[in-house]
Amino acid sequence: MRHALLLAGRGLGQVAPNPAVGCVLVKDAKVIGRGWTQPGGRPHAETEALTQAGDLAKGATAYVTLEPCAHSGETPPCADALVNAGIARAVIATRDPDPRTAGKGIEILKKAGIEVVEGVLENAARRLNAGFFLRITQDRPLFALKIAASIDGFIARKAGEATQITNAISRAHGHLLRSRHDAVLFGIGTVLSDDPSYTVRLPGMESSTPVRILLDSRLQIDETAALLNTLEIAPLWIITGDHSESAKAARLEKLGVLIISAEAVDAHGRPDLHWVGGALAERGMNRVLVETGASLNQAFLDANLIDALHWFQSPETLGSGAVPAFGGGQISGAEEIGGLEQVDKRAFGGDIYLEFSREQAESIS
Questions:
Q1: Which residues of the chain form beta strands (DSSP E)?
Q2: Residue 365 pLDDT more than 90?
Q3: Which residues contact 245 (CB under 8 A, 6 or more apart)?
Q4: Confidence band (pLDDT; 50, 70, 90) for 285?
Q5: Would the pTM count as exceeding 0.85?
Q6: How many degrees, rounded to 5, is the angle at CA 231 between CA 255 and CA 228?
Q7: What are the DSSP E strand ranges found in 30-78?
Q8: Which residues pair with 265 in a beta bridge?
Q9: Which of 38, 128, 140, 179 could join 277 via S-S bond, C-beta 3.0 to 4.6 A?
Q10: From CA 25, how far away is CA 117, in angstroms rounded?
Q11: CA atoms of 297 and 190, how far apart (whole Å)
């Protein structure tokens, strides 16, 4: 099952709205087939593994990270495919919350006389697909906040100034994080000050750039922005206020930008983040990486929408007058954000990388 989970992870950021699933087929103590959900969500992991195994699948054990689907879409149900292949046993990490499956896949297997074992490495499997679980059960994606900060908790030397704080290893890992999410979200302030492209700049991985999502309530984006010059690499969605019918919106749409008018705004006229979560879930987003400035970081914190945190800490100090990671200024380190547990810690040269995750038991049960 650990191997199946590693395989499943290869699909993160590439398979939405589907979950990222891994499957390993074992017979006579040998792996005879393995698979993971392919880009775009098809083929499914079980189909890939069964294709590899061929006739050897008869009598085998299937280790699957998520309950095999029971509904027909572009392909027949995976539960039926496992039955038809003649497997003898299925070991399943966790059940699928999608009402179209939700126990039905397991029932298909059991009715066919297949032995079913559930709950093997369930917590790891649920965490891997926490975004999918949240989208199905709470109509919103997982929001993961990425912050690169000095050791004293600052993200820039002064407001409006781009500051390269972390080293090349940390920056490369940050690009890898982008590739493992369905979308990267940011605010107009960051775009106006830094003119970023938010692409994945790792050799050979440019095509893994996720959907770019800009929160721009007054449609302030400059029409020469880098985001608009990289539309051939990845889509750009702009969530705005009541500017969808403006001439500027029409010009942006002609370029291929998706303009989304927020139906709910906060006291400052900015798109309400809970509404944003629902709108992104409706469009199939499971995992969204938030890479932005202090104001929007604070808004996600205030809305209690930080499900995961990737904190890159440089040994550098920026000191008084620098820009804090959060607009409220009261948080200088990852450990000060409540409701998150540390799940990883690594050294990237002189930098420290810390990963935190919200306890998912309540969120996705």
A1: 22-27, 30-36, 61-64, 89-92, 115-118, 142-149, 154-156, 183-187, 211-215, 236-240, 258-261, 287-290, 308-313, 323-324, 340-348, 351-358
A2: no
A3: none
A4: very high
A5: yes
A6: 65
A7: 30-36, 61-64
A8: 271
A9: 140
A10: 14
A11: 11
Both tokens of 151, joined, read 């050791």
290-325 confidence digits (pLDDT tens): 999 999 999 999 999 999 999 999 999 988 789 999
* Cβ–Cβ < 8 Å for 275, 111: no
Task: Give the distance from CA 84 to its chain's centroid.
Answer: 33
In 3-state terms, what secondary structure has residue 35? strand
Helix ranges, 212-306 (H): 247-255, 273-282, 294-302
Phi-psi region at 30: left, alpha or beta (left = phi > 0; alpha = psi -120 to 50) = beta
**161 three-state secondary structure:** coil
Which sequence positions are flagged as catalytic? 46
From residue 354, give the alpha-carbon distance in Å to each of 14, 106, 324: 24, 37, 18
Which tokens is 109 given? 């297997």
